[in-house]
Each structure stands twice: as structure tokens, then as C-alpha cells.
């Protein structure tokens, strides 16, 4: 069943009351006199009916109006029923927020009407969640983008951040890896604007600083709003990087509806590494040997590989990736929800189970998650409403003892001429380390279990007895998080063959001892909010606003311990380990914030719009006298389309808006205004007493700075919102500019190294950022086919205005006037083609024919660090865009999402022993002098030790991010099955690239050498049903 916007659920009582007031208001106009005379006519007969949604659930508060007569109408009751006196030939118009308006002509006296209203995805987005409230999109003056559940849930992944990719202008979501439960996802809003932390602030159900956004259940989310300009100023010192507001679903009036949503996905890497085979690997090694003056010792073996005569008992040809990594893994999600209520009590209850298998051969590794949520609203009296929200989550990652990057590295470095097993299946100890026991659990495993309990108790008290439109509200939120980690390392059996005896020798003693590491931490967050608000209309004037106080407290504590030489792996407890070598440690932290803030909105006739916000923040991160700051915001809007002189032949809606705001960023290391001391041992230990006991000593840390405070951002935004006639094409165009100042960064670069000083952060950095955003959406119908198309485009470019740099830094290496995120590499000019060319050109001492020809940028006849240059593009794309296409016909549906990025570069370079075949096939040789990469090299080579632009890749791409094919059963069939809704779907995520410039690796990865858990492609079968 399609889900409604939260406002639809929360506002039904208010809508019913408002509609009753409107329809029962005493009228004194001539139209009322006419209406009364009509009502007395014998031609009017009672018409009754019921209005439901597409899942056959009653709709409460639907406006039923006689067309052409504003004085005759009613609304539906809690069961969706209505009755109204009508004459034959009259037309009834049915309207409801979030649904397409419907018209029904009265054809007979006493006609019974049964109407099903269809949701309107355009109208659903007309109400936008903003900071501490909601606003109509048509009167919104800030830059706020929103996405509803229908668009979020269409992507079937375990990480909800991936569901936002390509769907919101200005929001960049890059998936750097696909490790289950630990996916590395980078999210930024409008690029980078600071030298420090650039993560946005997450606000979940009104509570700031709630992390864990990525692990939310997509089915629980009602909407996600992104605040990009002065609209974020209401969050003050934490909002400089933008704000992401997440609103979960709530109950709604109507009969209880039980919904089940289940998916099963088959996953595989979007691109797996293809390493050199044995022949290529030995060819590479011998070419290294030749180039370094060593004997080419493998020529006979290489020839044997080529002609098929190699001795397979000695020489293998192993694809180590396939030995350690599965081709496919399984992911499944199961969600069940219960939703309903009446005018007194509404509820939303959900549960989720998520199971993601890892790609390793062992089936015990992966991520399991259990989510439970309950959101309840109780109308205690006409003016008093309370809410109680709970959510509980348990997530556990089980993985090999090595990190994903270390395990993938072991796959890379394993020589392909080795074989994993002897002929009888005995595990082979290879020359470079066999990765199989590291991947299948033989060497041990580790688990990380995280639990999250989040709660919120809220109330709203309307105060009409004081004055109409006045209200008080508040909430208390208590969140408790824990993490328990347990790493168990085991020795394992691995063998070599003793040629003299013909027997296997177990090398278990060389694989370490049984050891155990355990860690536990817990976090407590408390938030209190009190608000006094006002919202009232006086003729054409609407005034609304609030003042509020909020307080936040954070506490964190952790400890860890480890022991070696456990008695047995079957007793994985610390007490079974040896005392010798045991370790333990712990730490903790506390922080707090206090905030006073408010907002004032003015709306004249829906044409002239203004909003002013002001927030005063206090943060314990800074010293007394530096803790408090003021953060104002102002935005204006003019709906030109509402002016009497405006011709609506082309535009239904045209709005100009502008905003300015000052925001802050206090996400820095705590207590930098205090002197820190390091509790050390070893060289800083002291001897006390007659027994000369060695005791730990204190050494001073970074020198404190009592003057630090938050960095500030001034944001400017100009925007145009438009909608062509009949809303066939809607969109917006925006220009934004931001100047960030007081960025915390040290002056270390300008202090001579010989001083040995490590200086504290100071508020000295300055950065600017500017760009444009475009959003277009088209909805239409051809015959019985409904279709839609949309595009969003963002461009953002940052520039460092000031940062501390050494006085002798070459001009071409100064970061000032360059983007925040940058690459500094040596400039290349192809490869050396002869010894003569080497002798007549500056070069590193080890330069050989076929090596990179480094450019002497400063023309001093020496190649060194001063010859590096800054590249303006980096792994953070300046351009991001998304294209959506969809169609629906008689229950069949298709939705397509294309994701792209541009003006982005990153470094991909080989390292260690085996490499991607890309570097072998395209290496320099005497017969391939116009190559992409240098000749075969070892790890000490200047080719690799000094990174040049040879290894820089343009990571622009356009990929088919998501395709969904679906079928929703017709109501006649549903009635036979006893269901309200049944929908089947097949979805593909990360399907393929339309174009990219890398080819052998996923361009969203930023791991230079390829030692990362690859992003995943998913093929998903889904079932949605509602009872």
C-alpha cells in the first residue's frame, strides 16, 4: 500500500475540525440566500457514499463540494462516509491533500457513490518538513529539497543512504565500499566548504545528533528533507554543512492495516579485480629482473605455461579472488507494519529483519539487523495531544579477523603460480601467504554488535482560551547506544610438503596463538525541548512563529582488554588467557549544548512571503566567553503568479526567492582550550621509591588555545520555482554562494620544523563555495499510460581563500585559490624511450627506459618534491546529476534511475606483488612505447614511490543506478484473495555503466590500490501485500 505523508496522518483531526468550521459558518451573502432556497427545493435528494484510498481504506476528512456552489458541501467521517442533498445533474467535487481531485455527476435521485481516490505524488510533496515544523511548498522561501517514501523505498538496499543517490539536487552520495553493515558512504551537501569536518547534521524525528541514519528501515521513513541554505540556520552552530531531516511514519485514522514487505537479493561486485595469471605474473617479474640487471630466471617456466607443458604439481595457475570470494551472495529483508487509529489514538508499529551475507567463501560472515519501531499519538483532550515514540535496533557484523582491506590485500599479493591445496585437498602454505584460511574462518573471526534504544516523549497543548493560534509544545528524548566487539584469533593448520620424506609438515605453530580482544562502549544522549508557538490568519495576513529552548547532553565511555595464549578457542573468555602480555585501557567524554532560538513567518495573500530565524547557541567545546554565538537567517519570497497582472496562460506557478543566513560548525575536537597530558610509559616512565618501581609519566600534549570558537558560514541563495500550466512541467533553478570563515586549523606549516612545536588549532581558515542547481519534473498521461520524467543537476566549486602555508611553498603548490579537496602529484611527460633521453633530462637516480618521465616544473634541473603540481579536480565531484523515468499502465510499472557525476578525479595505482591485468596489458614495452603505464617495476621504483598524473583517473561516469519492474494486482483479484493490496517487483541496483573512464574498477571507489570491499550489484525480487 502506498504510504501517505506524515502530515496527512497527524493533521486529520485538524482538517476535520477546520472543514466543519468552514461548512457550518453562518452566511449572510446573497449566495447563501440562494443556497437556502435551493436546499428547500423538492428537487434535492439525499446522496450518500463512501470514499476510500487505493487500498480500500476509508479516507477521513475528504472535502465533498457541489461544483459552482461554495456554500454546499461536507466532509467524510472516520469511516469515509458522507451524505449531502443534491439534485440530478449536479457535479460533486472530491478533494483531499495528497490525492488527485475527482468529480462525480449525479445521474439519479438518491444515488449511492463509492469512490476510490488516487494518491498524487506531486501533491504529496506540497507539504515539506523543515526545521521544527512543516511548510507548504508553494510558500517556502528557503532552499529545501524533499523526497517521500514512494521514491525512497523503490531502491532495495540495506543502506538507506544509497536510496537517496541521484534523487535530490545538491546532495552528493558516494558509495566507497559495499562491506555489509559497514558500508563506506560519503554524504555532502553542495560540495565542500570547509577544511574541517564536512558532514551534514542529521535530525531524525526532530532530534538532532541522532546518528545511524544509514541503518534506518526504508519502509519506516515518511520523508527526507535537505536544508541547504539559510533554512538550516534554525540549527545554528551545527548547521553550516547543511541538515538532513528524516521523518518516520506515524499512525493514521482508519481500520488497522497490516502490511508485509519482503525482498530477496542476489548480490555481486559491480567490478571485481582481474589479477595477472601465472604466466603474466612471471613475465612481469622477469621483466623487472631484466630492467634491474638480474637474471631472468623464469623464462623456461613462462614458455611451459605458453605451450601447455608446465608441471602442475609444482606450478599452479590460481585465480585467488575466485578461491576466497564467492561469485554471488544473498541479502534479504523482511518488514511488517501495523498502522491505524481513530480521532483519539493513532499508532504505527513496525519490525524489520535484515540479513546480508558477505562475499567471502565462509557463509558465517555478514551483517544481521533487527529493527523495531512504535510511534503513538494520543489526543487526550480537544487541545492536548501527546506522542510516544520508541525504536530499538540490534545490528551485528561478523567478519574475518583481518579487516576487509587487509584481507583483499592478501588476495592481491598471493602469487598466481601457487596453488591453494595439494592434490588430496590439504591446505597449502604458499610463498606469499594463503588467503583461504583468513577468509573461511579457520584463523578466527570477529564480531561487532551494536544496540540502539531511542525514545521520545512529546506533547502539544493548544491554548485557544488565551488567544486563537497559540500553543505550547515540547519533548524529551533519551537515546542509549552500546557497542560490543569481540575478536578471536586462532592458529590454523597449513602444510608444506617435505620432498625428502614425501610427507606433509604442519606449520600451525607459525600461524600465531589463540588470542582474544574485547571492547565495550556505551553512549547516552539526552535532549529537552520547550516551545511556545503562534499561528493565525487575519484576512490576507498569516503570521506564525515560535520561540524555543533546547538542551543536549552527551556522555560516552569505553574500555577494552586483551589476552594471548588462551587455553582453548572453545573457551573464548579473557580469564582463560595468560597474564603475560595482557592489556587493558579505557576512556570517556562528556559534552553539552544549550540553545535559544525562534522563527517568524509572514504571508500576505500567498504572494509576499518572509521568514526570519534567530538562534543563540552555547557549546561546551569552547572556553567560557567563547561558548555563545548568534546565528540569524532571513529569506524572502514573491509568488508573481498570484499577482492580478500575471498572465497564467503559460505558468500556473512562478515564485522568486532569496535567502541569507549565518550558520556555524562546532564539530571539532573537544576541550582544545584545556592543556592535555599524555599518560605514557616507556621513555617517559619515572622511577620512584627504594624498590625503584617504574611508573607511568605525564607529558604535555598540544598547547591549548583559549580563544577558539566555531567556524561560521554566511550562505546566500537565489531561486526560481515554476510550474507550467496544468503542472505538466515543474522545477526550480538556484544559485548559491557561501563564505566560510574562522575555520579551525593549526599554523604548523609556517613554524620551522626544528622548533619541535605542535601548535593548537586557530580560527584562521577561509573558504568560499558557489554553484547552481536545477530540478525539472514532468508528469503526463497518454491514453491509459501515466508517465513521468525528472532530472536534477548540481554544480559546486570551492576555493580556499586562506590557510596557513609555509613561506617557501612554490606558487604552483599553494592551496590558496584551489579547491578544498585536491590532488598533488608529479607532472609527467610520457615515458623515457632511450638511455640517451634519460641522460639529457632531469630524472630520479633509478630512472630506466620505460619509466615515467617526470617534468621539471621549476626548471632547476632536479626532480624533487617541488615539482609536484595541484590538480583542481579530486574524488569529490563538482558535478552530480540524476535522471528519473517512470511509467504505469494497468498495474504494470517501471521506474528507472540514472546517476552521474563529472569533474572528479582520483588516484588508482598498483602496489605490492600481484596487480590488476590493466597494468600488465597496458605497460610500456619495446613494442608498445605509446603505453598508458610504465614498464614492469618493483615497489622501490620511482614510478610508484613518486605518484604522478600517470595514475590519475577521470572518475566521471553515468550509470544505470536502479531499475524496478512491478505489477500491482487489480481490485477484483484482491477481493478474491482477501487482500487490500498486492504488489510484485523485480529491481536491479548498480546495474551497469553507460560510460566511465576507468573500466577496471568502480569509479566511486577512492582506494588507490584496490584493497577494498567492492560496491555491490543487486538483483532483487520483492513482495508487498496489505491485509
TrEMBL record:
Residues 413-991 form the TonB-dependent receptor-like beta-barrel domain. Residues 137-243 form the TonB-dependent receptor plug domain. Signal peptide: none annotated. Keywords: Cell outer membrane, Membrane, Receptor, Signal, TonB box, Transmembrane, Transmembrane beta strand, Transport. SUPFAM superfamilies: Carboxypeptidase regulatory domain-like, Porins. It is found in: Cell outer membrane. It is a multi-pass membrane protein. GO terms for cellular component: cell outer membrane. The keyword Membrane applies. GO terms for biological process: siderophore transmembrane transport. Pfam families: CarbopepD_reg_2 (PF13715), Plug (PF07715), TonB_dep_Rec_b-barrel (PF00593). InterPro entries: Beta-barrel_TonB, Beta-barrel_TonB_sf, CarboxyPept-like_regulatory, Plug_dom, Plug_dom_sf, TonB-dep_OMP_SusC/RagA, TonB-dep_OMP_SusC/RagA_CS, TonB-dep_rcpt-like. PROSITE patterns: TONB_DEPENDENT_REC_3. One of its GO terms (molecular function) is siderophore uptake transmembrane transporter activity. Belongs to the TonB-dependent receptor family. This is TonB-dependent receptor. It comes from Bacteroides cellulosilyticus.
